């Protein structure tokens, strides 16, 4: 895991004022912005700045000024924190359409965590003043932000419960249960989209990459899961749930 350092520049400081011409950005595909009026959308477009990052670049630095809201337009990122002894701990993954940095914008405070690019990414930065205007004047944005914050509190609570599990294998099984989503169509198996690397999962749940590999291999051999390049299918959800409850 790459760790934040003082030599890498946060998105809000480094981003050019306009998107390069080859970027085809469809802002209505971002859930937070999807229901904006045409007038508000035009205001957002004029304020946005864009930046590309390479894999393992630091997009946001913990402790930096919270002077904007950010949107992930393409690629994958991970929110991380660093312990007092210097270990990087993954908190959650971000996928295209997700936004981040909202807490510091709302509070007018510093960034509470860092964000690392897990692949080449394209990020849009909306200055704090424009973001706060949306929160207070666009009902659809305010409503979605409230639901997002409520879900974030619940997710963080579930994650703390996960880390309190002493049995490492059960932590891995519980992590998969928390990450899974329904299949795209009725009858399709539940799925973990944008599956993190084994090392990234290990960082998030405080174990080793080898332990994660062994656990996932065992699940696959039992026919409980099936993996492809970037997804993990839960073929036997009841069996996986039972493993999370085993002593």
What does the model show?
The protein is of the alpha+beta class and 247 residues long. It has two domains: 11-161, Jelly Rolls (Sandwich), CATH 2.60.120; 166-245, Arc Repressor Mutant, subunit A, CATH 1.10.10. The chain is 39% helix and 20% strand. It is built from nine helices and eleven strands. The strands form three sheets. A four-stranded antiparallel sheet has the order 1-8-3-6. α4 crosses α5, α6 (168-179) packs across α8 and α7 (198-205) packs across α8 (209-221). The longest helix has 25 residues, at 139-163. The chain is globular, with a radius of gyration of 19 Å. The model is unreliable at 1-17 (pLDDT under 50).
Please write out the topology.
Elements: H1 11-14, H2 38-47, E1 49-53, E2 58-60, E3 68-74, E4 77-82, E5 88-94, E6 99-100, H3 102-107, E7 114-117, E8 121-127, H4 128-137, H5 139-163, H6 168-179, E9 190-192, H7 198-205, H8 209-221, E10 225-227, E11 232-234, H9 237-245
Antiparallel strand pairs: 1-8, 2-7, 3-6, 3-8, 4-5, 4-7, 9-11, 10-11
Helix pairs in contact: 4-5, 5-6, 6-8, 6-9, 7-8
Transmembrane segments: 115-135
Domain HTH crp-type: 166-238
Domain Cyclic nucleotide-binding: 32-152
